[in-house]
Design goal:
It is a single chain. This protein is mainly α. It has 10 helices and no strands. The relative contact order is 0.12. The longest helix is centred in the middle third of the chain and has 45 residues.
């Protein structure tokens, strides 16, 4: 939901073309646009692999519809919740946003009687007006718009999650809790927690996909062990990838990515899937031969882009093993 404001002081205006007649009755305006991404190894693929791991994904019309609803929930809707919560509400708390144009009437303070221009009292009032202008117009406008947009997104998320089942609704509530925790940490430290980002972008979409097709939690203990082993290992792999992108040391990041995939291959072998375990090792070899170029050039975006399909294949192989 996008609401734009003009650069001049005045009431909010819509994003309509110049000369367009404003609607008299439309309540909300929803604007969707492609998000900037570095790889396909992210929420969408985690969602799909979670659905594969459930063992209930098929080609029926109902299965395709459930997958589409789960995708809309996990990508644009919950992604919008994260954006509004972390980059909307948290950023609105930060000072330093000067209102464009002249100061509005709400930032005008009364002058003391007989105050002369340039006197200490006049400078004090002027300073207070400037401080008020830094917060009153931009901050509370952002808060109002963010709260309105967040409420709308949560309403849609709740409706979609309830269509997919109670477990998906619980995962949706967990997503909101993670987003609020991230916003709180951002307000305190001025930066994101990579761990919470990995949980929101990978672990929770994987669970949305899984519970969308296997709502019955009555499973054998061995399946649950395989399920949480796969989810934990690849969440940590995603965290290592996010750390590389964020500028963390290359050595520990690469070691974590390679070691965790070797552990996943060993688990597949132990769970009786030797062919998928060999596939994991071959996909890992494809990533390993590109590692020297990363160490030499430090081009992390290039490395993550080039190795994304190996990681996606590795996650898919593990999900297939969990399903069987």
């Amino acid at each position: 939901m996008a609401v734009e404001t003009s650069d001049e002081a005045g009431p909010p205006t819509s994003g309509a073309a110049p000369g367009a007649v404003a609607s008299l009755g439309r309540l909300l305006d929803l604007s969707l646009r492609p998000a900037r991404r570095l790889t396909w190894f992210g929420p969408s693929w985690a969602l799909l692999c979670g659905a594969v791991a459930s063992g209930g994904l098929g080609l029926s019309k109902l299965a395709v519809l459930r997958l589409l609803v789960a995708f809309v929930l996990a990508e644009p809707i919950l992604g919008g919740v994260y954006r509004v919560t972390v980059f909307g509400l948290a950023h609105a708390r930060l000072p330093g946003r000067v209102a464009p144009g002249p100061l509005g009437a709400e930032t005008r303070l009364p002058r003391l009687p007989f105050t002369q221009p340039g006197s200490p009292s006049a400078r004090l009032v002027t300073g207070l007006e400037a401080l008020l202008a830094r917060w009153a117009w931009p901050t509370w406008s952002l808060v109002r718009l963010s709260v309105l947009e967040l409420g709308f997104l949560l309403l849609v998320a709740s409706a979609l999650a309830l269509l997919l089942g109670e477990q998906v609704f619980a995962v949706t509530l967990a997503s909101l809790a993670v987003a609020l925790a991230q916003a709180w940490l951002w307000g305190r430290r001025g930066q994101e927690s990579l761990g919470l980002l990995a949980v929101f972008d990978f672990s929770l979409p994987w669970l949305v996909g899984y519970f969308s097709f296997r709502p019955d939690p009555a499973l054998a203990p061995g399946h649950w062990r395989a399920l949480f082993a796969a989810l934990g290992l690849y969440s940590l792999i995603y965290l290592a990838c996010v750390g590389l992108r964020a500028g963390k040391p290359k050595g520990p990041g690469l070691i974590a990515i390679f070691t965790l995939q070797l552990v996943a291959a060993a688990c597949l072998l132990a769970f009786g899937s030797p062919l998928l375990a060999v596939t994991e090792v071959l996909l890992l070899y494809g990533q390993a031969i590109l590692a020297p170029a990363l160490i030499k050039t430090d081009n992390r975006s290039w490395y993550l882009t080039e190795t994304q399909y190996y990681l996606m294949g590795s996650l898919l192989a593990t999900s297939l093993a969990v399903a069987t």
